[in-house]
Amino acid sequence: MTFAEKVKVAIVGYRGMVGSVLVNRMLEEDDFALVDAKFFSTSTHGTPAPKVGKYDLGLIGDANSVTELSKYDIIITCQGGDYTNAMHPQLRAAGWNGYWIDAASALRMKDNVSLILDPINKDQLKAALEAGQKDFAGANCTVSLMLIGLGGLFSKGLVENVIVSSYQAASGAGAANMRELIEQFGALHSHVEAELADKSKTMLDVAAKVQEKLSTDLPAPYFGAPLAASLIPWIDAKHDHGFTKEEWKGHAETNKILGFADNTIKVDSTCVRVGVLRSHSQSITLKLKENLSVEQIEQLIAEHNKWAYVVPNEKEQTLARLTPTAVSGTLNIAVGRVRKLSLGDEYVSIFTVGDQLLWGAAEPLRRMLRLVVGAPLDY
Ligand SMILES: NC(=O)C1=CN([C@@H]2O[C@H](COP(=O)(O)OP(=O)(O)OC[C@H]3O[C@@H](n4cnc5c(N)ncnc54)[C@H](OP(=O)(O)O)[C@@H]3O)[C@@H](O)[C@H]2O)C=CC1
Ligand SMILES: N[C@@H](CC(=O)OP(=O)(O)O)C(=O)O
């Protein structure tokens, strides 16, 4: 792309979960040197922006102002789908012709919007840019993590069908939900602190008191049910045929990223919220098109990109490297427990863990910014 002067970039939602991870990554990779950036918020506008390394970004802009935002070449938004639905049409109606790079799902399935996952679909993204496309959206976090983790199998066309059981962290639902989980852990512990200290109490006594708190007055305004010491097998809104929207996205977005307009690969998911703070895990059953050995599968995964790495199917390695604790805050996507299933030679079970705030959200947006401004990217 060629821009008249230093590219002006508006970052909307800089203080949310995805926005703050995006800002950190941009700082780590010195992306702020490439652009003239400004933060935007719906609630903190007019106040000084937090210092970003050596960069002073001035005052925070008003994220609800079409006039203000229209002055920018690129808008990166991590503000959420309601914001996109409200502002994107207004900006386009006002004649704004800049690049819209979005973390939300609102525009993902529109024809003139590409899903950003450049280690998998950089040719698609480059072709879209060359064709003059201006709207781009990061994909659903579980989809992005699965495709980068198993890129060696998907990109070679080896996958026929997929069944996913996800274990999704609280932070996937946003900053307020993450806070709620931590507060629930604290409330449960406080509720039984005396019993834990009293050695005459059995663990059944303690568990009964925890259960009483869980089922009566553990605050859960954001999740709608306790998540600490429990789980919630429902993420996002209701969709058709008994699926949740999160589960539907697994199928629709996987196919869109891979460029299958006819939904060639069937992806059936059960998405579950668990009491993890950060990083999503997935237990994935694949039906492959060929009878590959475990060693061949592991090699294809390890060779595809520098972020996916194979954890040997051993207890010690799994506990040390295949957990949210091991990958959180990193771009690594751990892939382990690789084994053939008794269902048949083509069936494989794989467990993968990745930080949904990085490759699942912020990192594709940051890389799309570099693609738009023509800056180099590592692979
Ligand atoms: N969380 C994740 O793992 C993923 C999220 N996404 C998508 O990214 C978008 C943004 O998600 P996410 O970052 O999780 O959303 P958050 O809820 O963390 O942040 C969104 C906005 O909420 C406002 N906000 C209100 N209270 C607070 C607070 N206490 N701390 C921080 N922000 C606050 C901020 O806007 P303001 O400054 O205007 O008040 C912020 O920009 C959504 O569309 C989501 O679906 C996609 C993939 C993964
Ligand atoms: N729904 C995911 C995170 C997310 O925001 O996904 P999406 O961008 O597809 O709505 C989760 O809660 O873990």
From TrEMBL:
Highest taxon above the source species: Bacteria
Gene3D superfamilies in alphabetical order: Dihydrodipicolinate Reductase, domain 2, NAD(P)-binding Rossmann-like Domain
Statement: the UniProt record of this protein carries the keyword Amino-acid biosynthesis: yes
Annotated residues for binding of NADP(+): 15-18, 79, 171-172, 356
Binding of phosphate, residues: 108, 249
PROSITE patterns from the UniProt entry: ASD
Pfam family, one: Semialdhyde_dh
E.C. numbers: 1.2.1.11
Catalysed transformations (reactions): L-aspartate 4-semialdehyde + phosphate + NADP(+) = 4-phospho-L-aspartate + NADPH + H(+)
Active site: 141, 280
Biological function: Catalyzes the NADPH-dependent formation of L-aspartate-semialdehyde (L-ASA) by the reductive dephosphorylation of L-aspartyl-4-phosphate.
Oligomeric form and interacting partners: Homodimer.
Similarity section: Belongs to the aspartate-semialdehyde dehydrogenase family.
Entry-linked HAMAP family: ASADH (MF_02121)
The name this protein goes by in its record: Aspartate-semialdehyde dehydrogenase
